[in-house]
Amino acid sequence: MGNLFCCVQVDQSTVAIKERFGKFDEVLEPGCHCLPWCIGSQLAGHLTLRLQQLDVRCETKTKDNVFVNVVASIQYRALAEKANDAFYKLSNPKTQIQAYVFDVIRASVPKLDLDDAFEQKNDIAKAVEDELEKAMSAYGYEIVQTLIVDIEPDEHVKRAMNEINAAARMRVAANEKAEAEKIIQIKRAEGEAESKYLSGVGIARQRQAIVDGLRDSVLGFSVNVPGTTAKDVLDMVLITQYFDTMKEIGAASKSSSVFIPHGPGAVRDIATQIRDGLLQATHHHE
């Protein structure tokens, strides 16, 4: 209908290509334009100026012979001042861009190991962008941004990488656990050593108190009862303790003591041994 009245409408963010008798005439900006078809003018087509995005998936291999799929995202647009070049010079700009992306990625990634490829994604994207900018500017297109959005190795490779990482973390955890157990054992040994030391000190003090008590008892009895000797007092103390022990054992309802046949006369031998020990302790104390 517009061509019938020699008028055409060009939408916003779009330009139209005007031809006269099949030859490029001019670029029509957005708005309403007169197109007198009677003198050979016609509309060849429209060209969008909007930002477009092309996702390219390229399979290649790294320097350490791991096949990966590299996904690149190319954002581009046609330049209004070069609309005639963008319209006439390329029949399929997406195919042209894809070919350059393949060429750059397959030239860059094989120089890197797999780990380096992940770390240098920005460098790969910059190389693709520079190459596309040089090539596509001649055809009236501007490369706005190039992104390497994903690098996907084979599933078996990803599983192996995860297992390596998990093994390394388990090794660190095992070392930490071993260090913790070592510290626990050291602290337990230190505690046992300290406990045994304090127990030994307590036993030594107990025995010293017993010796001091017996000595004081012997000396006090000898002073208050004239004519008695230390031996007599010690024998009497031992016999008293002997009968007290027998009384306590007999009073116990559930006794598990084992008696060895003996007589009261054996107390004398015990007294002799204790007296000798008492005298040695007293001598050592002096």
From TrEMBL:
Keywords: Coiled coil, Lipoprotein, Myristate
Organism for this UniProt entry: Gossypium laxum
The protein's name: Band 7 domain-containing protein
Source species taxonomy: Eukaryota, Viridiplantae, Streptophyta, Embryophyta, Tracheophyta
InterPro entries attached to this UniProt entry: Band7/mec-2_domain, Band_7, Band_7/SPFH_dom_sf
Broad class of the protein's primary localization: membrane
Residue ranges of every copy of the Band domain listed in the record: 5-165
SUPFAM superfamilies for the chain: Band 7/SPFH domain (SSF117892)
Localization (cell): Cell membrane
Residue ranges of coiled coil: 157-190
Keyword Transmembrane helix in annotation: no
Signal peptide: none
Entry annotated with the keyword Coiled coil: yes
A cellular-component GO term for this protein: plasma membrane
PANTHER family (UniProt xref): HYPERSENSITIVE-INDUCED RESPONSE PROTEIN 1-LIKE, STOMATIN-LIKE PROTEIN 2, MITOCHONDRIAL
Mode of membrane association: Lipid-anchor
